[in-house]
Amino acid sequence: MKAVTLGPAGTYSHRAARAVADDVEFRESVSAIVAAVADGEYERGVVPIENSIEGSVTETLDALSDNDVSVTQEIVTPIRHALLAQSGNFSTVASHSQALAQCRTYLEAEYPDVALEAVASTARGVERARNDPAVAGIGHPDNAGDDLEIVAEDIQDRQSNATRFFVVAPPSERSDAGGKSSVVVYPNANYPGLLLELLEAFAERNINLSRIESRPSGDRLGDYLFHIDFEAGLYEERAQEALADVEAIAEKGWVRRLGSYDTRHVLY
Amino acid sequence: MKAVTLGPAGTYSHRAARAVADDVEFRESVSAIVAAVADGEYERGVVPIENSIEGSVTETLDALSDNDVSVTQEIVTPIRHALLAQSGNFSTVASHSQALAQCRTYLEAEYPDVALEAVASTARGVERARNDPAVAGIGHPDNAGDDLEIVAEDIQDRQSNATRFFVVAPPSERSDAGGKSSVVVYPNANYPGLLLELLEAFAERNINLSRIESRPSGDRLGDYLFHIDFEAGLYEERAQEALADVEAIAEKGWVRRLGSYDTRHVLY
Protein backbone atom coordinates (compact mmCIF):
# COMPACT_ATOMS: atom_id res chain seq x y z
CA MET A 1 0.00 0.00 0.00
CA LYS A 2 1.41 3.37 -1.06
CA ALA A 3 0.28 6.48 0.80
CA VAL A 4 0.96 10.19 0.53
CA THR A 5 0.98 12.71 3.38
CA LEU A 6 2.50 15.97 4.61
CA GLY A 7 6.27 16.00 5.03
CA PRO A 8 8.94 16.21 6.18
CA ALA A 9 9.61 12.81 7.75
CA GLY A 10 8.74 12.80 11.45
CA THR A 11 5.64 15.04 11.34
CA TYR A 12 2.49 13.91 13.11
CA SER A 13 1.08 13.26 9.63
CA HIS A 14 3.95 10.93 8.77
CA ARG A 15 3.44 9.01 12.02
CA ALA A 16 -0.27 8.62 11.27
CA ALA A 17 0.42 7.53 7.66
CA ARG A 18 2.80 4.79 8.78
CA ALA A 19 -0.17 3.20 10.56
CA VAL A 20 -1.90 2.54 7.22
CA ALA A 21 0.96 2.10 4.71
CA ASP A 22 4.52 0.79 4.53
CA ASP A 23 5.45 3.03 1.67
CA VAL A 24 4.87 6.71 2.49
CA GLU A 25 5.68 9.62 0.18
CA PHE A 26 5.30 13.36 0.83
CA ARG A 27 3.58 16.34 -0.77
CA GLU A 28 3.80 19.88 0.49
CA SER A 29 0.11 20.72 0.82
CA VAL A 30 -3.14 19.04 1.83
CA SER A 31 -4.74 20.18 -1.44
CA ALA A 32 -2.00 18.44 -3.45
CA ILE A 33 -2.38 15.23 -1.40
CA VAL A 34 -6.16 15.01 -1.85
CA ALA A 35 -5.88 15.86 -5.57
CA ALA A 36 -3.21 13.14 -6.04
CA VAL A 37 -5.54 10.53 -4.49
CA ALA A 38 -8.50 11.75 -6.57
CA ASP A 39 -6.31 11.36 -9.69
CA GLY A 40 -5.49 7.75 -8.76
CA GLU A 41 -1.80 8.46 -8.22
CA TYR A 42 -1.88 7.02 -4.67
CA GLU A 43 -4.04 4.40 -3.00
CA ARG A 44 -4.29 6.40 0.22
CA GLY A 45 -3.72 9.93 1.48
CA VAL A 46 -3.49 10.91 5.15
CA VAL A 47 -4.52 14.46 6.01
CA PRO A 48 -5.10 16.29 9.32
CA ILE A 49 -8.75 17.28 9.73
CA GLU A 50 -8.92 18.68 13.25
CA ASN A 51 -6.64 19.53 16.13
CA SER A 52 -7.63 20.17 19.71
CA ILE A 53 -5.62 23.41 19.73
CA GLU A 54 -5.82 24.91 16.26
CA GLY A 55 -9.29 23.59 15.43
CA SER A 56 -10.37 22.53 11.96
CA VAL A 57 -7.84 22.31 9.19
CA THR A 58 -9.81 24.41 6.73
CA GLU A 59 -7.60 23.48 3.78
CA THR A 60 -8.58 19.84 4.35
CA LEU A 61 -12.30 20.66 4.58
CA ASP A 62 -12.09 22.58 1.31
CA ALA A 63 -10.08 19.83 -0.43
CA LEU A 64 -12.71 17.24 0.59
CA SER A 65 -15.52 19.29 -0.92
CA ASP A 66 -13.56 20.16 -4.10
CA ASN A 67 -12.32 16.63 -4.97
CA ASP A 68 -14.02 13.30 -5.58
CA VAL A 69 -12.52 11.10 -2.85
CA SER A 70 -13.79 8.89 -0.05
CA VAL A 71 -12.84 8.75 3.63
CA THR A 72 -12.03 5.20 4.79
CA GLN A 73 -10.62 5.69 8.28
CA GLU A 74 -10.11 8.20 11.05
CA ILE A 75 -6.83 8.22 13.01
CA VAL A 76 -6.44 9.99 16.35
CA THR A 77 -2.99 10.73 17.80
CA PRO A 78 -2.11 12.46 21.07
CA ILE A 79 -0.39 15.85 21.08
CA ARG A 80 2.94 16.03 22.90
CA HIS A 81 4.17 19.51 23.76
CA ALA A 82 7.87 20.25 24.16
CA LEU A 83 9.52 23.57 25.01
CA LEU A 84 11.84 24.48 22.10
CA ALA A 85 14.45 27.26 22.19
CA GLN A 86 17.99 28.03 21.12
CA SER A 87 19.04 27.52 24.77
CA GLY A 88 17.56 27.42 28.26
CA ASN A 89 18.04 31.22 28.44
CA PHE A 90 14.87 32.84 27.11
CA SER A 91 12.62 35.60 28.40
CA THR A 92 9.46 34.95 26.34
CA VAL A 93 7.40 31.89 25.42
CA ALA A 94 5.52 32.50 22.15
CA SER A 95 2.74 30.10 21.09
CA HIS A 96 -0.95 29.77 20.28
CA SER A 97 -3.00 31.01 23.24
CA GLN A 98 -4.46 27.54 23.77
CA ALA A 99 -1.05 25.83 23.76
CA LEU A 100 0.09 28.39 26.34
CA ALA A 101 -3.03 27.61 28.37
CA GLN A 102 -2.40 23.86 28.10
CA CYS A 103 1.14 24.26 29.52
CA ARG A 104 0.25 26.85 32.16
CA THR A 105 0.94 24.65 35.20
CA TYR A 106 4.41 23.72 33.96
CA LEU A 107 5.31 27.25 32.84
CA GLU A 108 4.17 28.88 36.10
CA ALA A 109 6.14 26.38 38.16
CA GLU A 110 9.36 26.35 36.12
CA TYR A 111 9.42 29.77 34.44
CA PRO A 112 7.34 32.13 36.63
CA ASP A 113 9.12 35.23 35.28
CA VAL A 114 8.98 34.68 31.51
CA ALA A 115 6.52 36.66 29.41
CA LEU A 116 3.84 34.71 27.53
CA GLU A 117 3.12 35.92 24.01
CA ALA A 118 0.07 34.73 22.07
CA VAL A 119 0.77 34.22 18.35
CA ALA A 120 -1.39 32.83 15.53
CA SER A 121 -0.21 29.20 15.70
CA THR A 122 2.21 26.91 17.50
CA ALA A 123 4.29 26.81 14.28
CA ARG A 124 4.58 30.61 14.33
CA GLY A 125 5.90 30.43 17.90
CA VAL A 126 8.55 27.85 16.94
CA GLU A 127 9.52 30.06 13.99
CA ARG A 128 9.92 33.01 16.42
CA ALA A 129 12.19 30.82 18.58
CA ARG A 130 14.29 29.93 15.53
CA ASN A 131 14.82 33.62 14.73
CA ASP A 132 15.26 35.00 18.26
CA PRO A 133 17.40 33.48 21.04
CA ALA A 134 15.25 35.24 23.68
CA VAL A 135 12.11 33.35 22.60
CA ALA A 136 10.96 29.78 23.23
CA GLY A 137 8.19 28.02 21.29
CA ILE A 138 5.97 25.03 22.03
CA GLY A 139 5.73 22.03 19.71
CA HIS A 140 6.34 18.34 19.15
CA PRO A 141 9.99 17.46 19.98
CA ASP A 142 10.58 16.56 16.31
CA ASN A 143 10.14 20.23 15.37
CA ALA A 144 13.40 21.14 17.11
CA GLY A 145 15.44 20.33 14.01
CA ASP A 146 19.15 21.14 14.10
CA ASP A 147 18.92 24.67 15.45
CA LEU A 148 16.64 24.39 18.49
CA GLU A 149 17.14 22.63 21.80
CA ILE A 150 14.43 20.52 23.44
CA VAL A 151 14.39 22.34 26.78
CA ALA A 152 11.65 20.10 28.23
CA GLU A 153 9.25 17.41 26.95
CA ASP A 154 5.62 16.58 27.74
CA ILE A 155 4.92 19.91 29.40
CA GLN A 156 1.15 19.84 28.71
CA ASP A 157 -1.17 19.84 31.72
CA ARG A 158 -3.03 16.72 30.65
CA GLN A 159 -2.81 14.00 28.05
CA SER A 160 -6.19 14.37 26.38
CA ASN A 161 -5.12 16.66 23.53
CA ALA A 162 -5.08 15.11 20.12
CA THR A 163 -5.04 15.51 16.36
CA ARG A 164 -7.55 13.78 14.10
CA PHE A 165 -6.59 12.60 10.61
CA PHE A 166 -8.68 11.31 7.73
CA VAL A 167 -7.45 8.53 5.48
CA VAL A 168 -8.68 9.38 1.98
CA ALA A 169 -9.01 6.92 -0.91
CA PRO A 170 -10.37 6.90 -4.46
CA PRO A 171 -14.19 7.21 -4.58
CA SER A 172 -14.56 3.55 -5.64
CA GLU A 173 -13.34 2.50 -2.17
CA ARG A 174 -16.03 4.34 -0.28
CA SER A 175 -17.39 2.20 2.52
CA ASP A 176 -20.87 2.30 4.05
CA ALA A 177 -19.75 0.31 7.10
CA GLY A 178 -18.23 1.79 10.25
CA GLY A 179 -19.43 3.60 13.32
CA LYS A 180 -19.02 7.16 12.04
CA SER A 181 -19.83 8.88 8.75
CA SER A 182 -18.97 12.20 7.12
CA VAL A 183 -20.94 14.16 4.55
CA VAL A 184 -20.62 17.60 2.97
CA VAL A 185 -23.85 19.53 2.36
CA TYR A 186 -24.22 22.61 0.16
CA PRO A 187 -27.81 23.84 0.52
CA ASN A 188 -27.29 26.72 -1.95
CA ALA A 189 -29.99 28.50 0.03
CA ASN A 190 -30.19 30.78 3.05
CA TYR A 191 -33.34 31.19 5.10
CA PRO A 192 -34.11 31.40 8.84
CA GLY A 193 -33.91 27.96 10.42
CA LEU A 194 -31.98 26.27 7.58
CA LEU A 195 -29.22 24.94 9.84
CA LEU A 196 -31.80 23.89 12.43
CA GLU A 197 -33.63 21.83 9.78
CA LEU A 198 -30.39 20.09 8.84
CA LEU A 199 -29.69 19.18 12.45
CA GLU A 200 -33.26 18.00 13.05
CA ALA A 201 -32.97 15.50 10.20
CA PHE A 202 -30.41 13.67 12.34
CA ALA A 203 -31.88 14.39 15.80
CA GLU A 204 -35.29 12.97 14.79
CA ARG A 205 -33.58 9.61 14.07
CA ASN A 206 -31.59 9.76 17.28
CA ILE A 207 -28.30 10.12 15.41
CA ASN A 208 -25.68 12.03 17.35
CA LEU A 209 -23.69 14.66 15.45
CA SER A 210 -20.11 14.62 16.62
CA ARG A 211 -19.19 17.75 14.70
CA ILE A 212 -20.51 20.36 12.29
CA GLU A 213 -18.35 22.92 10.52
CA SER A 214 -19.37 25.66 8.12
CA ARG A 215 -17.13 26.76 5.28
CA PRO A 216 -17.71 29.62 2.84
CA SER A 217 -19.05 28.49 -0.52
CA GLY A 218 -16.76 31.05 -2.14
CA ASP A 219 -19.72 32.53 -3.97
CA ARG A 220 -20.84 35.25 -1.56
CA LEU A 221 -20.43 36.31 2.07
CA GLY A 222 -22.89 34.43 4.31
CA ASP A 223 -23.27 31.49 1.89
CA TYR A 224 -21.97 28.29 3.48
CA LEU A 225 -21.46 24.61 2.95
CA PHE A 226 -21.54 22.31 5.98
CA HIS A 227 -19.24 19.45 6.93
CA ILE A 228 -21.20 17.07 9.16
CA ASP A 229 -19.79 14.09 11.08
CA PHE A 230 -22.38 11.78 12.64
CA GLU A 231 -22.32 8.60 14.68
CA ALA A 232 -23.98 6.04 12.40
CA GLY A 233 -22.99 4.01 9.35
CA LEU A 234 -24.25 5.06 5.91
CA TYR A 235 -25.68 1.53 5.48
CA GLU A 236 -28.08 2.10 8.40
CA GLU A 237 -31.69 2.84 7.54
CA ARG A 238 -31.90 5.78 9.95
CA ALA A 239 -28.83 7.35 8.26
CA GLN A 240 -30.37 6.84 4.82
CA GLU A 241 -33.60 8.46 5.98
CA ALA A 242 -31.78 11.40 7.53
CA LEU A 243 -29.76 11.94 4.33
CA ALA A 244 -32.94 11.78 2.22
CA ASP A 245 -34.25 14.70 4.32
CA VAL A 246 -30.94 16.52 3.95
CA GLU A 247 -31.04 16.05 0.18
CA ALA A 248 -34.55 17.53 0.08
CA ILE A 249 -33.31 20.56 2.06
CA ALA A 250 -30.35 20.90 -0.32
CA GLU A 251 -32.40 20.41 -3.47
CA LYS A 252 -30.84 23.50 -5.08
CA GLY A 253 -27.34 22.43 -4.03
CA TRP A 254 -25.70 19.05 -3.41
CA VAL A 255 -24.80 16.42 -0.79
CA ARG A 256 -21.52 14.50 -0.93
CA ARG A 257 -21.19 11.25 1.06
CA LEU A 258 -17.53 10.90 2.02
CA GLY A 259 -18.03 7.47 3.58
CA SER A 260 -18.27 5.56 6.85
CA TYR A 261 -15.25 4.58 8.91
CA ASP A 262 -13.92 3.47 12.27
CA THR A 263 -11.45 5.24 14.51
CA ARG A 264 -7.92 4.04 15.07
CA HIS A 265 -5.81 5.43 17.91
CA VAL A 266 -2.10 5.71 17.23
CA LEU A 267 -0.07 6.16 20.42
CA TYR A 268 3.66 6.83 20.65
CA MET B 1 -10.42 58.49 18.07
CA LYS B 2 -7.31 56.28 18.02
CA ALA B 3 -7.63 52.81 16.51
CA VAL B 4 -5.28 49.88 16.01
CA THR B 5 -5.39 47.34 13.18
CA LEU B 6 -3.28 45.02 11.04
CA GLY B 7 -0.54 46.66 8.99
CA PRO B 8 1.11 47.53 6.75
CA ALA B 9 -0.61 50.67 5.44
CA GLY B 10 -2.95 49.87 2.55
CA THR B 11 -4.28 46.51 3.76
CA TYR B 12 -8.01 45.86 3.72
CA SER B 13 -7.85 46.20 7.51
CA HIS B 14 -6.31 49.66 7.26
CA ARG B 15 -9.02 50.75 4.83
CA ALA B 16 -11.72 49.50 7.18
CA ALA B 17 -10.08 51.17 10.21
CA ARG B 18 -9.98 54.55 8.49
CA ALA B 19 -13.78 54.41 8.39
CA VAL B 20 -13.94 54.58 12.20
CA ALA B 21 -10.83 56.57 13.23
CA ASP B 22 -8.58 59.35 11.95
CA ASP B 23 -5.55 58.12 13.84
CA VAL B 24 -4.71 54.50 12.94
CA GLU B 25 -1.74 52.55 14.31
CA PHE B 26 -0.62 49.01 13.46
CA ARG B 27 0.10 45.78 15.29
CA GLU B 28 1.32 42.60 13.67
CA SER B 29 -1.30 40.16 14.93
CA VAL B 30 -5.03 40.06 15.66
CA SER B 31 -4.30 38.69 19.15
CA ALA B 32 -2.07 41.70 19.91
CA ILE B 33 -4.73 44.12 18.63
CA VAL B 34 -7.55 42.66 20.74
CA ALA B 35 -5.29 42.46 23.83
CA ALA B 36 -4.26 46.12 23.37
CA VAL B 37 -7.92 47.19 23.32
CA ALA B 38 -8.74 45.01 26.35
CA ASP B 39 -5.83 46.69 28.18
CA GLY B 40 -7.26 50.15 27.40
CA GLU B 41 -4.31 51.14 25.21
CA TYR B 42 -6.60 51.98 22.27
CA GLU B 43 -10.21 53.13 22.04
CA ARG B 44 -10.93 50.90 19.05
CA GLY B 45 -9.46 47.89 17.27
CA VAL B 46 -10.45 46.72 13.79
CA VAL B 47 -10.03 43.00 13.07
CA PRO B 48 -11.12 40.74 10.18
CA ILE B 49 -13.68 38.16 11.32
CA GLU B 50 -14.73 36.45 8.10
CA ASN B 51 -13.88 36.41 4.43
CA SER B 52 -15.96 35.00 1.61
CA ILE B 53 -12.94 33.03 0.35
CA GLU B 54 -10.87 32.02 3.34
CA GLY B 55 -13.77 31.70 5.78
CA SER B 56 -13.55 32.55 9.45
CA VAL B 57 -10.46 34.19 10.83
CA THR B 58 -9.93 31.72 13.65
CA GLU B 59 -7.33 33.87 15.40
CA THR B 60 -10.01 36.59 15.75
CA LEU B 61 -12.61 34.15 17.09
CA ASP B 62 -10.11 32.92 19.70
CA ALA B 63 -9.03 36.44 20.66
CA LEU B 64 -12.69 37.44 21.21
CA SER B 65 -13.26 34.52 23.58
CA ASP B 66 -9.93 35.00 25.42
CA ASN B 67 -10.18 38.79 26.05
CA ASP B 68 -12.74 41.02 27.73
CA VAL B 69 -13.78 43.34 24.90
CA SER B 70 -17.02 44.41 23.23
CA VAL B 71 -17.99 44.56 19.56
CA THR B 72 -19.48 47.92 18.56
CA GLN B 73 -19.72 47.74 14.78
CA GLU B 74 -19.41 45.44 11.79
CA ILE B 75 -17.74 46.68 8.61
CA VAL B 76 -18.12 44.93 5.26
CA THR B 77 -15.78 45.66 2.35
CA PRO B 78 -15.77 44.16 -1.15
CA ILE B 79 -12.89 41.96 -2.31
CA ARG B 80 -11.04 43.11 -5.40
CA HIS B 81 -8.92 40.48 -7.12
CA ALA B 82 -5.91 41.46 -9.22
CA LEU B 83 -3.52 39.18 -11.08
CA LEU B 84 -0.03 39.73 -9.64
CA ALA B 85 3.21 38.43 -11.21
CA GLN B 86 6.79 39.46 -11.92
CA SER B 87 5.74 40.00 -15.56
CA GLY B 88 2.99 39.06 -18.00
CA ASN B 89 4.98 35.89 -18.83
CA PHE B 90 3.86 33.17 -16.44
CA SER B 91 2.76 29.57 -16.92
CA THR B 92 0.94 28.93 -13.62
CA VAL B 93 -1.61 30.81 -11.51
CA ALA B 94 -1.36 29.76 -7.84
CA SER B 95 -4.10 30.74 -5.39
CA HIS B 96 -6.73 29.47 -2.99
CA SER B 97 -9.09 27.12 -4.87
CA GLN B 98 -12.01 29.47 -4.29
CA ALA B 99 -10.14 32.53 -5.57
CA LEU B 100 -9.27 30.50 -8.68
CA ALA B 101 -12.94 29.58 -9.02
CA GLN B 102 -13.99 33.22 -8.60
CA CYS B 103 -11.72 34.31 -11.46
CA ARG B 104 -12.42 31.35 -13.75
CA THR B 105 -14.22 33.29 -16.51
CA TYR B 106 -11.41 35.80 -16.80
CA LEU B 107 -8.62 33.20 -16.65
CA GLU B 108 -10.22 30.91 -19.23
CA ALA B 109 -10.73 33.79 -21.64
CA GLU B 110 -7.34 35.49 -21.25
CA TYR B 111 -5.02 32.64 -20.19
CA PRO B 112 -6.55 29.39 -21.50
CA ASP B 113 -3.18 27.59 -21.44
CA VAL B 114 -1.86 28.41 -17.95
CA ALA B 115 -1.94 25.76 -15.24
CA LEU B 116 -4.05 26.49 -12.14
CA GLU B 117 -2.49 25.45 -8.84
CA ALA B 118 -4.52 25.34 -5.63
CA VAL B 119 -2.56 26.49 -2.57
CA ALA B 120 -3.59 27.05 1.06
CA SER B 121 -4.38 30.78 0.82
CA THR B 122 -4.34 33.71 -1.58
CA ALA B 123 -1.34 35.07 0.38
CA ARG B 124 0.57 31.83 -0.25
CA GLY B 125 -0.08 32.22 -3.99
CA VAL B 126 1.24 35.79 -4.01
CA GLU B 127 4.31 34.59 -2.07
CA ARG B 128 4.85 31.91 -4.75
CA ALA B 129 4.67 34.64 -7.42
CA ARG B 130 7.24 36.69 -5.54
CA ASN B 131 9.67 33.76 -5.51
CA ASP B 132 9.06 32.36 -9.01
CA PRO B 133 8.80 34.37 -12.26
CA ALA B 134 6.74 31.56 -13.85
CA VAL B 135 3.95 31.93 -11.27
CA ALA B 136 1.17 34.51 -10.89
CA GLY B 137 -0.89 35.02 -7.72
CA ILE B 138 -4.28 36.59 -7.05
CA GLY B 139 -4.78 39.39 -4.49
CA HIS B 140 -5.71 42.99 -3.85
CA PRO B 141 -3.65 45.32 -6.09
CA ASP B 142 -1.95 46.78 -3.00
CA ASN B 143 -0.24 43.42 -2.40
CA ALA B 144 1.93 43.91 -5.48
CA GLY B 145 4.54 45.88 -3.54
CA ASP B 146 7.71 46.83 -5.35
CA ASP B 147 8.52 43.46 -6.88
CA LEU B 148 5.26 42.37 -8.54
CA GLU B 149 3.41 43.80 -11.49
CA ILE B 150 -0.38 44.28 -11.51
CA VAL B 151 -1.09 42.29 -14.67
CA ALA B 152 -4.86 42.88 -14.47
CA GLU B 153 -7.35 44.33 -11.97
CA ASP B 154 -10.88 43.34 -10.96
CA ILE B 155 -10.67 39.90 -12.54
CA GLN B 156 -13.31 38.33 -10.24
CA ASP B 157 -16.45 36.95 -11.89
CA ARG B 158 -18.82 38.98 -9.75
CA GLN B 159 -18.73 41.75 -7.20
CA SER B 160 -20.43 40.04 -4.27
CA ASN B 161 -17.30 38.81 -2.48
CA ALA B 162 -16.45 40.58 0.71
CA THR B 163 -14.56 40.66 3.99
CA ARG B 164 -16.28 41.33 7.32
CA PHE B 165 -14.51 43.19 10.12
CA PHE B 166 -15.43 43.70 13.76
CA VAL B 167 -14.74 46.97 15.53
CA VAL B 168 -13.76 46.05 19.09
CA ALA B 169 -13.84 48.42 22.08
CA PRO B 170 -13.32 48.22 25.85
CA PRO B 171 -16.08 46.24 27.62
CA SER B 172 -17.55 49.42 29.14
CA GLU B 173 -18.62 50.51 25.65
CA ARG B 174 -20.71 47.44 24.95
CA SER B 175 -23.98 48.41 23.30
CA ASP B 176 -27.30 46.57 23.46
CA ALA B 177 -28.70 48.49 20.48
CA GLY B 178 -28.24 47.51 16.85
CA GLY B 179 -29.71 45.03 14.45
CA LYS B 180 -27.22 42.21 15.01
CA SER B 181 -25.60 40.70 18.09
CA SER B 182 -22.72 38.34 18.78
CA VAL B 183 -22.20 36.01 21.72
CA VAL B 184 -19.69 33.29 22.59
CA VAL B 185 -21.04 30.18 24.35
CA TYR B 186 -18.96 27.55 26.10
CA PRO B 187 -21.34 24.79 27.26
CA ASN B 188 -18.53 22.77 28.89
CA ALA B 189 -20.69 19.74 28.14
CA ASN B 190 -21.17 17.28 25.29
CA TYR B 191 -24.33 15.27 24.81
CA PRO B 192 -26.51 14.31 21.82
CA GLY B 193 -28.60 17.28 20.72
CA LEU B 194 -26.62 19.96 22.57
CA LEU B 195 -26.07 22.12 19.48
CA LEU B 196 -29.69 21.58 18.46
CA GLU B 197 -30.86 22.87 21.86
CA LEU B 198 -28.73 25.99 21.45
CA LEU B 199 -30.22 26.70 18.02
CA GLU B 200 -33.76 26.06 19.21
CA ALA B 201 -33.40 28.75 21.89
CA PHE B 202 -33.20 31.26 19.05
CA ALA B 203 -35.55 29.57 16.56
CA GLU B 204 -38.38 29.41 19.14
CA ARG B 205 -38.25 33.23 19.39
CA ASN B 206 -38.10 33.62 15.63
CA ILE B 207 -34.55 35.00 15.79
CA ASN B 208 -32.51 34.27 12.68
CA LEU B 209 -28.94 33.07 13.20
CA SER B 210 -26.71 34.61 10.56
CA ARG B 211 -23.72 32.47 11.51
CA ILE B 212 -22.50 29.83 13.94
CA GLU B 213 -18.88 28.74 14.26
CA SER B 214 -17.38 26.13 16.54
CA ARG B 215 -13.88 26.50 17.93
CA PRO B 216 -11.94 23.98 20.03
CA SER B 217 -11.98 24.78 23.75
CA GLY B 218 -8.34 23.72 23.85
CA ASP B 219 -9.13 21.28 26.63
CA ARG B 220 -9.84 18.09 24.70
CA LEU B 221 -10.68 16.93 21.17
CA GLY B 222 -14.42 17.22 20.49
CA ASP B 223 -14.97 19.94 23.14
CA TYR B 224 -16.11 23.16 21.49
CA LEU B 225 -17.16 26.70 22.17
CA PHE B 226 -19.62 28.35 19.79
CA HIS B 227 -19.55 31.81 18.24
CA ILE B 228 -23.13 32.79 17.40
CA ASP B 229 -24.25 35.86 15.42
CA PHE B 230 -27.98 36.55 15.44
CA GLU B 231 -30.29 39.14 13.95
CA ALA B 232 -31.72 40.92 17.01
CA GLY B 233 -30.51 43.50 19.51
CA LEU B 234 -29.49 42.39 23.00
CA TYR B 235 -32.01 44.91 24.41
CA GLU B 236 -34.90 42.99 22.81
CA GLU B 237 -36.96 40.82 25.12
CA ARG B 238 -36.86 37.83 22.73
CA ALA B 239 -33.04 38.03 22.70
CA GLN B 240 -32.91 38.18 26.50
CA GLU B 241 -35.21 35.15 26.72
CA ALA B 242 -33.14 33.21 24.20
CA LEU B 243 -29.93 34.01 26.08
CA ALA B 244 -31.51 32.95 29.38
CA ASP B 245 -32.15 29.53 27.78
CA VAL B 246 -28.60 29.47 26.43
CA GLU B 247 -27.22 30.27 29.89
CA ALA B 248 -29.20 27.39 31.35
CA ILE B 249 -27.76 25.04 28.70
CA ALA B 250 -24.27 26.35 29.46
CA GLU B 251 -24.66 26.22 33.23
CA LYS B 252 -21.35 24.38 33.62
CA GLY B 253 -19.62 26.79 31.25
CA TRP B 254 -20.15 30.43 30.36
CA VAL B 255 -21.79 32.86 27.92
CA ARG B 256 -20.06 36.06 26.80
CA ARG B 257 -22.16 38.86 25.26
CA LEU B 258 -19.93 40.70 22.81
CA GLY B 259 -22.54 43.33 22.03
CA SER B 260 -25.04 44.55 19.45
CA TYR B 261 -24.08 46.55 16.41
CA ASP B 262 -25.04 47.76 12.97
CA THR B 263 -23.32 47.06 9.66
CA ARG B 264 -21.39 49.66 7.74
CA HIS B 265 -20.40 49.07 4.13
CA VAL B 266 -17.09 50.58 3.04
CA LEU B 267 -16.74 50.75 -0.74
CA TYR B 268 -13.66 51.84 -2.65
From TrEMBL, chains A, B:
Source species of the chain: Halogranum rubrum
Assigned keywords, A-Z: Amino-acid biosynthesis, Aromatic amino acid biosynthesis, Lyase, Phenylalanine biosynthesis
Keyword Lyase: yes
Prephenate dehydratase domain ranges (all copies): 2-170
GO BP: L-phenylalanine biosynthetic process
UniProt pathway: Amino-acid biosynthesis
Keyword Hydrolase: no
Pfam families, per the entry: ACT, PDT
GO molecular function: prephenate dehydratase activity
Superkingdom of the organism of origin: Archaea
One GO CC term on file: cytoplasm
Protein's recorded name: Prephenate dehydratase
Residue ranges annotated for the ACT domain, each copy included: 183-260
